């Protein structure tokens, strides 16, 4: 915060296109719109989640991640370097967080130090709903949370 200050910084839209109205809306509801950034964000999220699932399930690195998560001492006896696996896992998580931050800032038009707090809470809730350590379950938990939020917004009007 010392360098960038606490004020939000303007962030350019990476992909710009006029929003597409999906519904016409009505007297009580505004029209539902879809933006190109939203479409790319959903597509990128699906691609990243599929890639992460394939990485964890079908590669040596993924097998090492699962082994270290289960029991680091036994993984070491089997020839896995837990420190390297943990470092790579955090690096992959950081890359995904940066990608999510760029897409989120592009969608909202600004970036601030606190913009990831609520999405982090929602991601943790989705992971708990789907089962900690279960990538597909976390994805399903996120979809359920999104549907619940959308239904709640629709009912509150």
UniProtKB/TrEMBL annotation:
<feature type="transmembrane region" description="Helical">
    <location>
        <begin position="124"/>
        <end position="147"/>
    </location>
</feature>
<dbReference type="GO" id="GO:0015188">
    <property type="term" value="F:L-isoleucine transmembrane transporter activity"/>
</dbReference>
<keyword id="KW-0812">Transmembrane</keyword>
<dbReference type="GO" id="GO:0015190">
    <property type="term" value="F:L-leucine transmembrane transporter activity"/>
</dbReference>
<keyword id="KW-0813">Transport</keyword>
<feature type="transmembrane region" description="Helical">
    <location>
        <begin position="32"/>
        <end position="56"/>
    </location>
</feature>
<dbReference type="GO" id="GO:0015192">
    <property type="term" value="F:L-phenylalanine transmembrane transporter activity"/>
</dbReference>
<dbReference type="GO" id="GO:1903806">
    <property type="term" value="P:L-isoleucine import across plasma membrane"/>
</dbReference>
<feature type="transmembrane region" description="Helical">
    <location>
        <begin position="83"/>
        <end position="104"/>
    </location>
</feature>
<dbReference type="InterPro" id="IPR052157">
    <property type="entry name" value="BCAA_transport_permease"/>
</dbReference>
<dbReference type="GO" id="GO:0015808">
    <property type="term" value="P:L-alanine transport"/>
</dbReference>
<keyword id="KW-0472">Membrane</keyword>
<keyword id="KW-0029">Amino-acid transport</keyword>
<keyword id="KW-0997">Cell inner membrane</keyword>
<protein>
    <submittedName>
        <fullName>Branched-chain amino acid transporter permease subunit LivH</fullName>
    </submittedName>
</protein>
<dbReference type="Pfam" id="PF02653">
    <property type="entry name" value="BPD_transp_2"/>
</dbReference>
<dbReference type="GO" id="GO:0042941">
    <property type="term" value="P:D-alanine transmembrane transport"/>
</dbReference>
<dbReference type="GO" id="GO:0005886">
    <property type="term" value="C:plasma membrane"/>
</dbReference>
<keyword id="KW-1133">Transmembrane helix</keyword>
<dbReference type="GO" id="GO:0005304">
    <property type="term" value="F:L-valine transmembrane transporter activity"/>
</dbReference>
<comment type="similarity">
    <text>Belongs to the binding-protein-dependent transport system permease family. LivHM subfamily.</text>
</comment>
<keyword id="KW-1003">Cell membrane</keyword>
<dbReference type="InterPro" id="IPR001851">
    <property type="entry name" value="ABC_transp_permease"/>
</dbReference>
